[in-house]
Amino acid sequence: MREIWTEQRKLEIWLQIEILACEALSKSGLVPKADLAVIKARAKFDIDRCREIEKSTNHDVIAFLTCVNENIGPSSRWLHYGMTSSDLLDTTMAVQIQQSADILLDDLRALRKVIARRAREHKLTPMIGRSHGIHAEPVTFGLKMALMYDEFGRAIQRLENAKEMCRVGKISGAVGTHAHLDPKIEDYVCKKLGLKAAVLSTQIIQRDRHAEFQAAMAVIGSSVERWATEFRHLQRTEVLEAEEYFGEGQKGSSAMPHKRNPITCERLAGLSRVLRGNALAAMENVALWHERDITHSSVERVIFPDSCTLLDYMLTLLTKVVDQLLVYPENMEANLWKSKGLFFSQSVLLALVKRGATREEAYKWVQDASMKTWRGTDSLQTNMKAHPEISKRLSKKEIEQACDLKQHFKHVNWTFKKLGIE
Question: Considering 28, 59, 180, 253, which one is annotated as catalytic?
Answer without folding.
Answer: 253
